[in-house]
Amino acid sequence: MRKVFYILTRLNDEDVDWLAAVGQRQRLDVGSVLIRQGRAIEALIFVLDGQVSVTVDGVGEVARLGSGEILGEMSLVDESPPSATVTVVQPTQILAIDKQRLVARLDGDAAFAARFYRAIATFLSIRMRNTVQRFGYGNAPVTTEEELDIALLDTVHIAGARFDRMIKELLGA
User: Fold this and answer.
1) How many angstroms separate the CA atoms of 123 and 131, rounded?
2) Which of 29, 54, 105, 109 is the most buried (most CB within 10 A)?
3) Whose CA is closest to 119, among 35, 15, 23?
4) Is the pTM of this model over 0.85?
5) Which CATH architecture is the domain 2-168 placed in?
6) Per-residue model confidence as pLDDT tens for the chain (173 residues)
């Protein structure tokens, strides 16, 4: 659930409300493919509940992700096709933010773009540091997915409240 904290701690309430308003909520069955390796993405995806499997051709499953994860962020940033396929392995609900609509907002609202890209950059930086450590380079400890860095601890309750509010609004709870 780490990605959503990085995004929602950097965005403000208006940003989160916009994402919820423009996103399309979808309920997906087991076997549905959200992202295909090598094919351009059409949306940034927030996993609201359920579970997905991330697989890489020639490698197999590299991760299982659930509630609070964000999919497609790397291809949104660098416009390269995805390097993995993401498939639903438990009934899953998502919020899909149309890529063109999101890019238009990023291009038209510098403050939103700054907050959004800073959140993505922070998460990707931490992911890269951990990957380097897992391959045995350097001597800093590897941070697990369940851990949050110290800088987020002061604002994690805000992100959690925003995510809970988003889910309640989207799921009608």
Assistant:
1) 12
2) 54
3) 15
4) no
5) Sandwich (2.60)
6) 467 777 778 888 899 889 989 999 999 999 999 999 999 999 999 998 999 999 999 999 998 999 888 899 999 999 899 999 999 999 999 999 999 999 999 999 999 999 999 988 887 887 788 778 777 766 655 554 445 554 555 565 666 666 677 777 776 75
